[in-house]
């Protein structure tokens, strides 16, 4: 049992170390030797858990996808204010990209040309934004004739841009940057009565974005 | 003289081949052998022109930067309608990213973790967007209390996002996608009288975006 717990811990340390290495050096340049060293385990231990660098990248992406699913599930539990749920989700997601090496690497791997991939995580985010705006529309939160297609395009593109720009300059992932996007967009898409219920910062004013703990931080 | 012209042609072919290889495989995975083969020249010729893969990447970035400078200089020659100039510049830039391998690679190299770089091209774009909005403000085109800082953030982030998303799916670089962004933003930032002068598509309705020819296509 103790042995099993240690194996779980080692696996997590390797995923985290791989995430850091992929983000810093890119998939092609990150070496397995540097990853095992960073994780503080032997290269034998690495190969026991992961048969290749691709398998490690897949594990990083899987964990980032789990965290993403948790974020989008937890930000809007009651579903009464889907537009606020969308605003909150962008805040929490950007905060995770800034603070959580695995989520950050998960998105960076989606745009790493040195690795074959179908950008599944990024596509999941695109779909979620589209669905969230659809829920806001059905809940009567969007203005008559609101530019929904335009909003999907702008929100997906801007948040993908935040991720890329944030990998060089952290300020692009800040609450301030995300709030600026919504200050611009919310008055353009929300119905008057909904406007009063939307906070462009995270929905609890003055508080930090609510952050479900990432599993490897537990 | 003929020899000199051939040297210029070979150099251009190498830059173009390198751009295609970097975009397809990433900087770290692109091989010099594949680049010289793609350019239809010997590896000796490649080494005559470029001492390393880094030197090739630098040449790609330099040429992309030249094209970028030309685009931003030519889209708004009279400066009477700086907001339209900004709209047009985003259309022409995205069209170039879609169609011109060197410009596409120049931006992709800015976010390639396998290569040391200061993202100079992307930062030039950020500064240009900020300056263009400043010109629009001084020309009285922006609404009273318009969210200028917010607009800079949203426009830079969204266009960077278009570039990244477009590297997987071309539709993100289309006139339709860029127009959707502006349909959303222009009414939020432009003064009423300016609104009537702005086309969210390229400024000549029905026409293709005006595209200065890239130097290697001449």
What is the ordering of alpha helices and beta strands of chain A? HHHHHHHHHH
> Could you say which structural class the secondary elements and strand pairing of chain A correspond to?
mainly alpha
Summarize the largest interface: chains and residue counts.
Answer: A-B, 43 and 43 residues
Largest sheet of chain A: none
User: Average pLDDT across residues of chain A?
Assistant: 90
Helix content of chain A: 55-70%
Please report the total strand number of chain A as a whole number. Answer: 0
CATH topology name of the domain at 57-204 in chain A: Tetracycline Repressor, domain 2
CATH architecture label name of the domain at 57-204 in chain A = Orthogonal Bundle
Number of helices of chain A: 10
| Oligomerization status of the protein chains | homodimer
Rg of chain A, nearest Å: 19 Å
Query: Superfamily at the CATH H level of the domain at 57-204 in chain A?
Result: Tetracycline Repressor, domain 2
Stretches of chain A where pLDDT is under 50 for at least 5 consecutive residues are 205-218
Please indicate the percent range of residues of chain A in DSSP E strands (runs of 2 or more): under 5%
Output the CATH class name of the domain at 57-204 in chain A: Mainly Alpha
Annotate the secondary structure layout:
2 copies of one chain form a homodimer.
Chain A lengths: L1 H24 L6 H8 L3 H7 L3 H22 L7 H18 L1 H9 L10 H19 L9 H19 L8 H15 L2 H4 L23
């Amino acid at each position: 049992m103790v042995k099993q717990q240690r194996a779980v811990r080692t696996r997590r340390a390797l995923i985290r170390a791989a995430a850091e290495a992929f983000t810093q050096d890119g998939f092609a340049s990150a070496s397995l030797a540097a990853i095992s060293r960073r994780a503080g385990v032997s290269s034998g231990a690495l190969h026991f858990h992961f048969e290749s660098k691709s398998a490690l990248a897949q594990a990083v992406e899987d964990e980032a996808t789990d965290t993403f699913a948790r974020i989008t599930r937890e930000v809007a539990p009651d579903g009464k204010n889907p537009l606020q749920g969308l605003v909150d989700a962008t805040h929490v997601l950007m905060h995770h990209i800034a603070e959580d090496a695995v989520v950050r690497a998960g998105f960076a791997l989606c745009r790493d040309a040195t690795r074959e991939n179908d950008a599944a995580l990024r596509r999941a985010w695109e779909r979620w934004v589209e669905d969230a705006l659809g829920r806001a529309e059905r809940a009567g939160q969007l203005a008559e004739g609101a530019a929904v297609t335009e909003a999907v395009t702008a929100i997906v593109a801007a948040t993908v841009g935040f991720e890329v720009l944030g990998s060089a300059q952290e300020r692009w992932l800040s609450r301030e940057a995300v709030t600026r996007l919504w200050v611009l967009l919310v008055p353009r898409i929300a119905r008057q009565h909904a406007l009063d219920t939307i906070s462009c910062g995270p929905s609890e004013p003055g508080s930090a974005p609510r952050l479900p703990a990432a599993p490897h931080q537990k």
